[in-house]
Amino acid sequence: MSNRSLNDQTVKQGSKRMWIWYFTIPVIILIVTVVYYAWKEPSVTGNHFIAASNYNLQASDDYLVYFYSDTCEPCKTFNRTVEQYQEHTSALPVYKVNTDKESSQTIDSLHVHGTPTVLRIQHGEETWRLEGNMPLAAFDTLH
Q1: What sections of the chain are H helices per DSSP?
Q2: Where are the domains of the chain?
Q3: Residues 26, 32, 34, 39: what is their CA dihedral angle, to the nearest 10 degrees?
Q4: Against a cut of 0.90, is the pTM above it?
Q5: pLDDT tens digits along 56-91
């Protein structure tokens, strides 16, 4: 057997191994991602807003929860209204919940039937609700 045929055979085996790695690594990443989101604790449950690890909320806190969807056109418009509210008043922090990524059981338990929806949570209980695309003046009823 010549050196050339040995080199050709080695190159073919090496390219087969590379193809396996190009296929295997994305599959492993996909599996890890699916497992992560399957075991991830939802941030909103029952009638209480539970402290998600990245929010660190307390039951005595007073805040707004804004439910939106990436595919909702009124949400895109209302998102600007929520941002204006945050710029003009720092009275209440606003936490955003994407209904496309949150479990439907969680959303249903809070009786959120459409987006955009804003809830005011005081001492762990809902005290105010705004549903639909409303002007900034609608937030005046909060105080």
Answers
A1: 3-39, 73-88, 104-109
A2: 1-40, 44-136
A3: -170
A4: no
A5: 555 667 888 889 998 999 998 998 998 888 888 767
